[in-house]
Amino acid sequence: MAANANPVLLAVLYDLHGKDVLIETVDKSKWRGIFSACSPENLKIGTKLTYQITESNKANLLPLKSEVVPRLTFKFVDIVAITTILEVEGASDILDAKTVMKKNQIHILPDERECASTGTLKRAI
Fold it and tell me: What angle do CA 53, 55, 60 make, to 5 degrees?
């Protein structure tokens, strides 16, 4: 990356790597894929397993195999927005399994499960 690059932008691009992104382009099309590369020198962004979101497929949970493009490159000038959900890491945001189990009163014994409401034991399948 360039020596004069904005460090905040570089941090954001680093966090995007490997994330599921939604890219909106100047022609108002929307594409969803995995952010895989960025080249400030060539002013391009690369994605993997990308598909275009259309009226016919936007309600689908997964795209059809025929809709998926293995690798796709977008020029910076063609992109209006890139959206993703970044994980917020912090002690208050992370719940370990024991905390969740205690909160929901779930007790798991080695080969048995206890139902919290009835107190009966059931064999684990």
Answer: 65
